[in-house]
Design a protein that fits this description.
It is globular, with a radius of gyration of 16 Å. 36% of the residues lie in helices and 22% in strands. The chain has helices spanning 13-16, 23-37, 105-111, 124-137, 154-168, 174-184; strands at residues 3-9, 41-46, 90-94, 114-122, 141-150, 170-172. By secondary structure, it is α/β, with parallel strands linked by helices. It has six helices and six strands. Strands 3-2-1-4-5-6 form a six-stranded parallel β-sheet, with helices on both faces. It has one domain (3-184): Isochorismatase-like (Rossmann fold, 3-Layer(aba) Sandwich).
Length: 185
Amino acid sequence: MPRTALLAMDLQLSNLGHVSDDYLPAAVRALETARAAGVPVIHVALRLRPGHVDAHPRNKIFGALPTHLFTADDPAAAIHPDVAPRGDEIVVHKNRVSAFAGNNLRQILAAQDIDHLVLAGIATGGIVLSTALQAADLDYRVTVLSDACADPDPDLHHTLLTTVLGRRGEVATTKEWADALAAVH
């Protein structure tokens, strides 16, 4: 039977410093909801190679980053301890904006027969948007958790949730998702 997975995306220490302080509790609720319902959690984090040999200088986002950021040795690239992986939860590293970039996420999802992706992460205008669009094109069902996503630009966050992401999938709060999960079980 096909199933759902929660993608907890770019919940790294450095990214949390760019969004409102009330964001982290919502992300924690999303993870707790998934874990309580037995929904697999897959953590996705940006990780570039030392010296950023995998980031082309023409890339507007990654080409301009100082080469010590988002590497395995960067302490600020760690996933925040409040939303860190537990037990056998999978961690996938990416090297571009989308959760699918530079890794075997599609293979992992296929091996677990996952067809519905629930997205939580930072930033709405970055990994959430890019992943939602790609996932929809790959025929996954997509749900974006509006309160478990954040962007340094609150207006952009609002616009994406109300005018773009709902066209590619569903947009729900963490509570609405928890209620839907409870109704199924």
